[in-house]
Structure formats: structure tokens, C-alpha cells
Design a protein that fits this description.
Length: about 725
């Protein structure tokens, strides 16, 4: 096993990189140099080693130590921390069952490297050709400014006339590094309003010391059913993190051997056919190396999400009203009209008509959102002015208008309707739809199915003009049906690729459209959906508040908090009448503030108090929108008199909010030590309820902390705002 070089080489590399960034010394070979902001690609003088990185990460690969494309170094120029990574290949290729390495010469032979600046970062591309199949294999590494993260993927292309080639055992990345405790975030795990899982299981930050042998996280269906597709491996100064940008099946295996661990992100069990007209791309993935602290890791992932995955498209949380919980499918135009006027007066900015607006919905009761699904036609009896009338009214009231859709599923009864889906497009596994017997998944691998779906979506968009689609997905089938352009093992892969194609086209046609990502709760919370969607519903179980906070506190480790949507709801555990309303609302404020209630639930007093909290959220929102989150305590729910405290610090470190929640209402105090403030900057500190708390430097605040005093007659939710002076 080759070990990395000693630290003594660092100053030399720093010097070389400084020259690369400032003077572009590779001008004599410009095809191999690229920069964008602080992101760059460089090649060493011998021409056998390439570095992609920025001021926070440098990742070098090359052929200098072997004939195989090999990881040479992986370190942080910001603090000199170096990952002691094995100098081996970081991926493998399997074509027609042969596992192959990316080699300078051999079965797969290197034909060139290309560096380029892209709209969002820089890209390093290595190209190889199979000597007999003539398959072209491209390996990509991409870096974006402002995040210590590298995106990577492999692409396969077949020349004209080539016979099909089986691509299998897809590998995203693999690294062997020192053994350290690992952490991951649990997935939804089936949590929902009617069958909650044990408290604290879904979206819990979990992990610990690894046993000898292999520990896996992953999914065989949708991305985050059991785990969020992301892993952290501890370190002394910096931590490794890595994940996949993918909404279907995946695996991250952690294999401990003595004092080393091999971490590998793969897409196992898939064999898919490469043909000249069907290039195959392994799902994109990423890895990074950030300073070991919750705020630095979250900031690194937030910058990757926004600058990289979303190509700079911002996340803009809107105060969102939703009709589902009070109305279900028993909703009419008159209900929506009444609610829209009341919601607008409270300060709601986005009104979402949830499931139930179409012909045939609710045949089996208020919760029946399957009947009629796929008709794509508003029920003319309940919505005589059609939906465009409601969209226009929302706009007149100063709100955006959103509609629930579940594009990937249809009720079987709609197959008989004019314009309905074709039964041949439906996903089956072993000949069964594998759903509830009344509905089925439309396999988006089939081009004709995608064309049909896009026509339904564009007709809806063009006839209703919604600003927002709540894109749900309540069932899943790993399709093995013939005739869809996929085989027996790549239905999952091919559907997700088809889904991305549809979302991509929708984005192209309607660039301002906002899309909410929901999948029976958060079954598809991943970086693939984050590329296309602007908010994400976490969990149908929207109470108690400690459960909502538990979800935000876990998921904001992976995703920008402003992406995470939950609702204020009147629940049996927490009645909005006799409970701490500020605590209920503020528990949702670290993310997207949503509300779901029937207007008749609110008397004037409650309405005023709710409106005041909405106003408060809007005052804090610029910071929430531009922040990464870090949990400063154990994840909620905490012990009886404990506190759970989440902080959000803006990208420029000039604004921060501490969301501190006391579990019980008894008198009590705690001290909050914020992180990630600028040490030399003076911050004014203010309690949302109690006013000015004074000012201090970032260094003093982080060292001495801020004491919070809770009195039994005040809200248990304490919001502390830090503003650079
Ligand atoms: Zn299929």
C-alpha cells in the first residue's frame, strides 16, 4: 500500500498553486488549464498528474505512479490538512462483465485529458477507449468556487454501428482512509401521520465506530427511504464527506480493515445496455474535505448545493399555505376562495391547492388522492371557474399559486379516459404493478411515456399558470417490463434518468417555475432532486414541534435549511389554541414556514398572533435564505428540561440566528456558544422577544457564549439574532 507523501511537500505545492492561480503559467498549454473564480485545473510539469480544486480543496489524480489513473493527493490548502488516502484508483469500470481499470495503455487506453471552465466551475475530463469494443469512457472531475467539494461521474459512449455493451457494477467513487467514526442521516423510514415510526428514528444523525468488515447504507428503491445518500468520516482537523447526486437506488459501503476504512459509493445490481444512441452516464456523485465542525461541513455542502448542483439558482423560502390537512380532497372553489383571502391577509405568500382538484378525486373519502389520478383535468363541478380563475385570484391577492401533482403515478381507471396513459408504459415488476391495486407507476424510461407526461404538464402549466408545482411520488416500482428501453435490472436507474429528463425540460420551458419535492414525505430527499426543486416536504407527520425540529436539525446537516418545508398545524398534542403558539411557529422557522389550517379554526386573537409570527419570519428570512445550519446540542427531542439549539449563519458570516427551544416550560437558563462568526467583527445581539442584549466581538461571543434565561410565562422558543455592526 502506498502511503501519501509527508507534510513537508506542502509549502512547495502551495507555491505552485499560487502561481497557477495568479499568473496562469500553463498558458503554453492552455487546453490543460482552466479557472473560474478560485476553482482551477492544473497539470504538473511532467504532464502525468492533474489537480482540480480551489482555495479550500485540492484533489490530484494521475498516471505518475502507475499505469492506472490513481488518486495522488487529497488535501485542504486552507488549513494544510491532508487526507491520508491510499494512492489507488477511485473508480472501476465493468463492460460486458469485465472489470477494467482506467489505464494509460491496456484494454482501456488513455486518449487525452481536457480542462475547461464551465458556467459554474471547472471541469477535468479524461478520455479512454476500449481497444476492441471501441467504447469511449470519460471520467469527469468538477470543482466549483467556494466549496471544498469535487463532483465526479463516468460516461460511456458507443461509436456508430457498435453492438450493445453491458455497463454494470457502476462505481461513483472509492477511497481508503484512516479509520474514524462515521456519521450518516437516517431516511424517512416510513414515518407518516397515521403510522409514526419510533420517535427520533427518521432523519436522525446516526453512526459511530465501525465494526471490522462491511457496514452499508443505501436504498434499493427511492433515495432516502432508509438513509440520506451522504456519509461523513471523521478526522482530526478535517472530515471527509461524500455522497451521490441521485434519487434512485444507491449504496455507500464502509469496509473496515484494521486501522483503515474503504468507503465506496456504488450503484450495485444494475446492468444497463450501452448503444450508439443511448450513452450511459453513471449517476453523478461528490466527495469533499471540510474543517471538522458542524458549521463548516454544512456551509461546504450548502455552497456545493447552490453554486454547483443548482448552478447558482437561489433557494427562496416563501410563507406557504397548503390545503391538504384541513380539507384533503373534499375541497371546492369556494373553500379555496375563502382561504386565499384569509391567508393573504395573514401574510401568506404562496397558496398551494394540494391533492384533490381533479376529476374523480375523493371517491373513497377525504384522504383518497388516488381516484382519478392521471386525468389531469380539474373537476368542473367543484371548480367551475377552472383553476386559472384561482391562480388569477391568488395573483390579484399578491400571492403565488401552487398545485399538487403526482406525475409519475396514475389511477388505473384513467387508462380508459380519452388522453389517458397507455397501459404499455406502466411499470411492472414480475408482471405486477406492485402498488395498491388501483394505481401504477408510469415508467419514465419509455420516451413515449415521457412525451405524454410532458404534454400533460405543459398543458396544465399553459392553461392554469401556476407558479409552483408540488411534485409528489407516493409509490415505487423497480420496473423490469420489456418495451421501455431498459432491461430487467436497470428499471430503477432508467426511470430516475427519465424523471430528470422531464424535470430538465420543465425547467427549460418554465425557468421561473418553483417545484416542491415530496415523495410520500421525504422518501426522495437527495442532491439529484435538489438540482431541480426549490423546497422539500420532509415528513407527513407535522407534529409535535419537537418532531419537526428533529427533522430540520437532522436534514439541515445535508441540505440548506431554507429548502426544508414543514407546516404549522393544529394537532391533538399541540393545540394552537391553548399551547405556546410562538413555539409551534418558530419550530418551523429555521426552514420554509408553512401553514395548514381551516380559517374557521382561527379567532381574531389567534389570527393576530399568527400574523405577528409570520412578520417575524419575514424579518429573519434574508438570513435564513443565505445560511447553513449547525446543531449546537443533541438533536430533538431532548430530555425533560433540556434545550435543543440550532444556529444559522449567513454565507458572509455577518448575520446569524440562534433558534433555542426549551423542552418544558419551567424556568431555566442555558448558555449558547455560536460558531462560525467572524472573530474580529462586532455583532449586535438581540432577543426577538426581549430586545437588545448588547454587543460583542465574534471571538468573545464564540468563547464566552450568550446566556438565555427562560421564564415559565414566556415562549419556550427563544430566537437570538446576531447582526454585524
Ligand atoms: Zn419500465
Amino acid at each position: 500500500m502506498l502511503r501519501p507523501r509527508s507534510r513537508s511537500w506542502l509549502p512547495l505545492v502551495c507555491l505552485v498553486i499560487a502561481v497557477v492561480c495568479s499568473a496562469r503559467p500553463l498558458a503554453d498549454d492552455p487546453a490543460l488549464a482552466a479557472s473560474n473564480g478560485d476553482a482551477f485545473v492544473s497539470r504538473d510539469a511532467a504532464g502525468a498528474s492533474w489537480t482540480v480544486g480551489n482555495s479550500a480543496i485540492q484533489f490530484s489524480v494521475g498516471f505518475s505512479r502507475s499505469r492506472t489513473l490513481t488518486v495522488e493527493s487529497f488535501w485542504s490548502p486552507a488549513n494544510g490538512a491532508q487526507l491520508d488516502v491510499d494512492q489507488t484508483a477511485d473508480t472501476s469500470i465493468t463492460l460486458n462483465g469485465d472489470k477494467l481499470a482506467l489505464t494509460q495503455s491496456g484494454t482501456l487506453s488513455f486518449t487525452g485529458a481536457k480542462a475547461s471552465a464551465t458556467d459554474a466551475g471547472v471541469q477535468l475530463e479524461f478520455t479512454f477507449e476500449h481497444t476492441t469494443l471501441h467504447t469511449i469512457v470519460r471520467r469527469f472531475y468538477v470543482c466549483y468556487p467556494g466549496t471544498p467539494t469535487i463532483e465526479t461521474w463516468t460516461r460511456f459512449e458507443a461509436p456508430a454501428g457498435a453492438p450493445p455493451v453491458a455497463v454494470s457494477d457502476m462505481s461513483a467513487w472509492t477511497f481508503t482512509m484512516p479509520l474514524q467514526p462515521v456519521r450518516w442521516i437516517n431516511g424517512l423510514r416510513g414515518d407518516n401521520a397515521s403510522q409514526p415510526v419510533p420517535p427520533g428514528d427518521s432523519f436522525a444523525v446516526d453512526g459511530g465506530d465501525l465494526d471490522e468488515g462491511e457496514t452499508d447504507i443505501g436504498s434499493t428503491a427511492r433515495s432516502s427511504e432508509a438513509f440520506v445518500p451522504l456519509i461523513f468520516v471523521g478526522g482530526d482537523v478535517n472530515e471527509f464527506y461524500g455522497g451521490v447526486i441521485w434519487s434512485g437506488e444507491w449504496r455507500i459501503a464502509m469496509t473496515r480493515a484494521a486501522d483503515r476504512v474503504t468507503v465506496a459509493a456504488t450503484f450495485p445490481g444494475i446492468s444497463t445496455a450501452l448503444t450508439p444512441d443511448r450513452p450511459i452516464e453513471v449517476p453523478h456523485a461528490f466527495f469533499g474535505y471540510a474543517p471538522k465542525s458542524a458549521d463548516a461541513e454544512a456551509a461546504a455542502l450548502r455552497q456545493f448545493a447552490v453554486n454547483g448542483i443548482r448552478r447558482g439558482r437561489p433557494i427562496q423560502p416563501l410563507v406557504t399555505y397548503n390545503t391538504w390537512f384541513p380539507y384533503g380532497t373534499s375541497i371546492t372553489e369556494a373553500d379555496v376562495d375563502e382561504e386565499m383571502h384569509r391567508a393573504s391577509a395573514l401574510g401568506v405568500e404562496l397558496f398551494v391547492l394540494d391533492a384533490g382538484w381533479w376529476l374523480g378525486a375523493g371517491k373513497n373519502g377525504q384522504a383518497d388522492y388516488t381516484s382519478g389520478l392521471g386525468s389531469w383535468t380539474a373537476d368542473p363541478e367543484r371548480f367551475p371557474a377552472r383553476l386559472i380563475g384561482l391562480a388569477d385570484e391568488a395573483h390579484d391577492l399578491g400571492m403565488k399559486f401552487g398545485l399538487w401533482v403526482e406525475p409519475e403515478r396514475i389511477a388505473l381507471e384513467t387508462l380508459r379516459m380519452p388522453g389517458g396513459a397507455n397501459e404499455q408504459w406502466l411499470a411492472t415488476t414480475g408482471g405486477s404493478y406492485n402498488t395498491d391495486g388501483r394505481s401504477a407507476i408510469v415508467c419514465l424510461a419509455a420516451p413515449a411515456a415521457r412525451k405524454w407526461l410532458l404534454s400533460k404538464l405543459t398543458t396544465l402549466m399553459d392553461s392554469v399558470h401556476p407558479d409552483y408545482l408540488k411534485w409528489d411520488n407516493n409509490a415505487w416500482t423497480n420496473c423490469d417490463r420489456a418495451g421501455h428501453g431498459h432491461g430487467e435490472t436497470d428499471g430503477n436507474y432508467s426511470h430516475v434518468m427519465g424523471l430528470y429528463t422531464v424535470l430538465d425540460e420543465l425547467r427549460r420551458l418554465y425557468p421561473d417555475l418553483l417545484i416542491e419535492n415530496v415523495s410520500g414525505g421525504g422518501n426522495r430527499l437527495d442532491y439529484g432532486m435538489l438540482a431541480y426543486t426549490d423546497s422539500a416536504w420532509m415528513d407527513d407527520l407535522s407534529a409535535p414541534s419537537s418532531h419537526v425540529r428533529h427533522n430540520i436539525e437532522g436534514l439541515s446537516k445535508a441540505f440548506p435549511p431554507a429548502y426544508l418545508l414543514s407546516f404549522v398545524i393544529n394537532s391533538a398534542q399541540e393545540s394552537i389554541y391553548d399551547y405556546d403558539l410562538a413555539q409551534i411557529v418558530r419550530s418551523r422557522m429555521p426552514g420554509v414556514l408553512g401553514l395548514t389550517y381551516r380559517f374557521t379554526d382561527l379567532d381574531d386573537d389567534l389570527r393576530q398572533r399568527l400574523a405577528a409570527e409570520i412578520t417575524r419570519y419575514k424579518l429573519l428570512r434574508d438570513t435564513i435564505t443565505s445560511s447553513a445550519a449547525a446543531l449546537l446540542t443533541p438533536q430533538a427531542p431532548v430530555s425533560e428540561d433540556g434545550w435543543d439549539i440550532l444556529q444559522e449563519v449567513s454565507d458572509d458570516h455577518r448575520n446569524a440566528i440562534v433558534f433555542a427551544f426549551k423542552n418544558d416550560s419551567d424556568d431555566g437558563t442555558t448558555v449558547v456558544w455560536p460558531r462560525g462568526l467572524d472573530a474580529d467583527t462586532m455583532y449586535g445581539v438581540r432577543s426577538v422577544d426581549n430586545g437588545d442584549m448588547g454587543s460583542a466581538s465574534g471571538a468573545d461571543l464564540m468563547r464566552d457564549g450568550v446566556q438565555l434565561v427562560h421564564a415559565w410565562d414566556g415562549s419556550r422558543a427563544h430566537l437570538i439574532v446576531f447582526t454585524a455592526q
